Amino acid sequence: MPDVAFLTTEIEHRVGAFDLRVDFRLTAPWTVLFGPSGAGKSTVLRAIAGLLQPKTGKISLRNHTLVDTRQGVFVDAGKRRVGFLTQQPTLFPHLTVRRNISFGLHALARMEREKRINEMLRLFRIEELAERLPAKLSGGEYQRAALARALAPDPELLLLDEPFSGLDAALKEAILRELTVWLTAHGVPALYVSHDLVEAYQTAADVIVIENGRVVVQGPVQEVLATHREQLLRQLGVITPPKLAPAPTESQIFRQP
Question: What is the distance between the terminal CA atoms of the chain, rounded to a whole angstrom?
């Protein structure tokens, strides 16, 4: 029995000379949208998040229609229950870390709200930063606080647009590990934009390869990115390219039988 898709995206959009036409379904808890810069990855995420209205198409999340251009449906970003962390996440500069995390939790009762905030602070190891303003945070602390704010409202889907690209490898690995554990435990799927092979393999994700605004292939990371992986290992000297047979000499080519 095939897996049931929780997100379906079939959209077309044009910006200048760039033409985006994608059609895919998400069924895995963690999916990497993989491709070179300018392929359309961020545009896809912005459309799903409600920050961009596609020219034509339809987007559905857990049987709820978010976009249907034929029917004139477009759900506002604030009503989609989609968490979105961009390449350069922005916290409210005049609010402490605690108040930034609580910003989207006004519908919760006070005790439940405080419980959720403290859970996020513990999850991302920023309890001691709760009363700091964003200007007093390091790059890694800022990213953790922004991620905590994105997850606090308990979204039905988390979108990540290369939010850890500015972090060192060890910190990035730690955050990804903690994040995948939490998402799995809470049943929140993620769509993660990347052009980093290591990140894709680390999360053991399904992969959608997008190039020039088109989906090229979708499937398990070990299958979809096998060729990319071998190329990278060769560049690192881990795999030695096979030796080619020496070219035949002129005498061998023209030797009489």
Answer: 61
Predicted confidence at residue 254, as pLDDT, reads: 45
Residue 232 is encoded by which pair of tokens? 């990278």
Q: What b/e sequence results for 220-240 when a residue is b if at least 16 CB atoms lie within 10 Å of its CB, and e otherwise? A: ebeebbeebbeeeeeeeeeee
The SS3 assignment for 48 reads helix
Distance CA 149, CA 171 (A): 19
pLDDT of residue 234: 57
C-alpha distances out from residue 12 to 17, 36, 57, 229, 240, Å: 13, 19, 6, 30, 42
pLDDT at 208 over 90: yes
Strand partners, 211: 214
Over the stretch 74-106, which tens digit does the pLDDT of each residue have? 999 989 999 999 878 889 999 999 999 999 898
**Could you tell me the two tokens for 178?**
């903690």
Residue 124 and residue 126: Cα distance in Å, rounded? Answer: 6
What are the beta bridge partners of residue 64? 61
What token pair was written down for 158?
């988390």
Length reported for the chain: 257
Which one, of 19, 57, 29, 12, lies nearest residue 179 by Cα? 29
Q: Which fold has domain 7-81+155-253?
A: Rossmann fold (3.40.50)
Is residue 200 helix, strand or coil? Answer: helix
Q: Give the pLDDT confidence of 104-144 residue by residue, as tens digits.
A: 898 899 999 999 999 999 988 899 999 999 999 988 889 88
Q: Tell me the pTM.
A: 0.83
Q: Which residues contact 149 (CB under 8 A, 6 or more apart)?
A: 91, 100, 101, 103, 104, 120
Q: Which long-range contacts (CB under 8 A, 24 or more apart) does 248-257 make?
A: none
